[in-house]
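Can anyone check this?
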Amino acid sequence: MEIGFLAGRAASLSTLHPDLHRAVIRAPTGLSRIEALSNHVHRENSAVRIDIRREGADRRVICEVLGFQNSPFVGFAEWKVIAGIIDIVRSAAGSDWRPSEITFISRGRPSDATLEAYGNTRIRTGQPCGSVLVAAADLARPCIDRRSTSDTVNDPLMPPQTPSGLGDAWDFVSALRALIRPYLAQGHPHLSLVAEIVGMSERTLQRRLAKSGSTYSDIVQDARFSIASDLMADSDLNIADIAFAAGYGNAPHFSRAFKRLTGMTPREYRGGLVCS
């Protein structure tokens, strides 16, 4: 258990298999990043399975390490996966976030360093599965590297400035997402327009996006969500007006897309912001 805890602390998203890393980083919310991890984790470790289950207002992220259930090393294997899940949630909820509960199949006692690192987190061993319990509202948050500057919140159709400290994270995909924001209120900007703006042919632009593990449709969806989440948090606009400002055809279409990315309807999300 102690070695697993130390190994988990030493790992980070940047150490993931490149395909898995791209899939996780391009997702815009904590929930969609966990789902990307679940869908692509086989690229990192074919023995790992990840699932998300509802528990009232929370979500339990289940992690199974197949073949280790009866192994004396199960605590080590579990910690590696659990640390990755926590790292992803922190990319949305902040670096100080701690889960309300962590469970392990292992019966080993958590080390003093573990208990100190996770403070008030309830750590339960000898359980049917390994898991991390997360508030649904924390998973619904836009990830920190996707959030806009204060200037962009005041004018959500302005392209945001490059966030300080992101370095390579502010890559071609991020820049393109920012570039198309002002065009979204008029609908779905055609690929040819964007290709002309960046000085590429449509085919070259599509190849560049494919190399980054993304598509033009992904970019448009992410940019729309970015505008919508800004307006949900920092304006009194009604849901229909937010849908229009973000380029959605109607409020029901917006609500379905928003729930797919956050696990919450726009009204539930806004209510959670008021409560927090």
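Reply from J.R.: I decoded it. The first strand starts at residue 48 and ends at 55.
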